[in-house]
Amino acid sequence: MIHVIVATGEWGQDQLRYRRHRLAEFLAEQQETKEVFWVCPAAEAPQEAFTKLHNGIIQFAVKDFLKKKMFRFARYRDVFYQKKLRLLLERLKTEVEAEKVCLWYTFPGFPLLSSLYDWDHIVYDCSDLWAAPISGKRNLASTFRQKVIFEAESRIIKAANTIFCTSEHLRQNVENRLGEEGKPVFTVENGVEYDFFALNHERAEVLSGRKGTVLGFIGGIKPKLDFKLVKKAARAKKDWIFLFVGPDGTNGDADFKEMLEEDNVVWTGPAAPAEVPAYMNVIDIGIMPYKPSPYNDAVFPLKLFEFLAAGKPVAGMNLPSTKKVEKEDVYRHMTGSDPGAFTALCEELERSYDDPSSIELRKKIACEKDWHRLFLTMLGKLNLNQDA
Predict the structure, then answer these.
(1) Which of 91, 93, 264, 364 shows a CA-CA span of 20 to 30 A to 308?
(2) Coiled-coil intervals in this record (predicted)?
(3) Residues near 6 by Cβ (< 8 Å), separated by ≥ 6?
(4) What is the C-alpha to C-alpha distance for residues 19 and 24, in angstroms, rounded to an integer?
(5) CB-neighbour burial class of residue 336 (10 A; exposed 0-12, middle 13-18, buried 19+)
């Protein structure tokens, strides 16, 4: 097998590891895999067309039309990238003999690629409501962006042989768009590298002697988070520390800057993936303070089972896909943007965060969601060995 994965950005971008990174490495480790190609947009043209990464995956970067974010719509319009895919297609045609070649879309970019090669199988692994604005705000630019991405995604949905979705909301959205067209669509939620979090006991030195219950968020810091709510909670609970670990993807969001002005809010900046468990071990309660929005209605956050694997209780907001995980002393969910309700929820979790039996239960729940198990399930649904 040769696997070609269409990804949102270059492998080490923002030092974050998403579902697609784990999927690529899982496929690379399979005995029947010959090569895995990581096809992605990039701000700059690479020195070499094909770059072999540290894990053996081969990156093929496609230079963006223009650097500014407003021009990223070109990733979804054929005329701007078709010629740039030529070297990838030539390599596939010259290297492939008896191998089967599988195309994996993990975001709706480069939709024309689905028809430029005779793929043995096309998979769409849908992890977001891509066309919806991440901030929840709508304007003329976001309306244009929504239309362009929706059209590109529709082409990929039509071309795909199999579709996976990370939440029931996304699955329902895809099935509504398919209409009566029969096509296998499965919900496979996000998982966790269980041993990586459960067995790591290092602790990051990040609090500079501060004392108090630590509420933490780890991941990309983006406008989908409710910074206003966290600021109010931080003012109300001066004996708590609110720790944010991750790259700033807010594009200068004023609410994020104002939240950081609170004395008990700490932001570390980005952390290398290998360092994440050490930061996780500083946290007493994991928080996922998402805004109410159509985008967040579809999200199944990566961090939920990572917090639980580390033995931490979690408070989530406006994430309907996670409500079925709710359990006392494990995970609590709320809707809305009331700081008082949020702090009350966290106070409830604070009472049992270090209880040994609760820690064991959290880890047990997370263990059942190990990535390896989930990806094996996905491969089983594809039946690649039986394809003609």
Answers:
(1) 264
(2) none
(3) 39, 40, 103, 104, 105, 106, 107, 109, 110, 113
(4) 9
(5) exposed
DSSP per residue, 127-187 = -S-TTS-TTS---HHHHHHHHHHHHHHHHHHHH-SEEEESSHHHHHHHHHHHTT----EEE
DSSP string, 203-266: ----STT--SEEEEEES-B-TTB-HHHHHHHHHH-TTEEEEEES-B-SSS-HHHHHHHTSTTEE
Ordered domains of the chain (ranges, CATH)? 2-191+370-386 (3.40.50.2000), 194-367 (3.40.50.2000)
* pLDDT at residue number 290: 97
What are the C-alpha distances in Å from 328 to residues 116, 142, 376, 388? 51, 39, 30, 49
Is 42:66 a contact under the CB 8 Å cutoff? no
Give, as one character, the DSSP assignment of residue 290: B
Both structure tokens of 33: 């895999």
Q: What distance in Å separates the CA atoms of residue 250 and residue 267, rounded to the nearest whole number?
A: 13
Per-residue pLDDT reduced to its tens digit, 33-91: 999 999 999 988 888 899 999 999 999 999 988 777 777 889 999 999 999 999 999 99
How far is residue 328's CA from residue 326's CA, in Å, rounded to a whole number?
7
Question: Which residue carries 């694997």 as its tokens?
Answer: 309
The whole-model pTM stands at 0.93
Low-confidence ranges of the chain (pLDDT < 50): 387-388
C-beta separation of 260 from 283 below 8 A? no
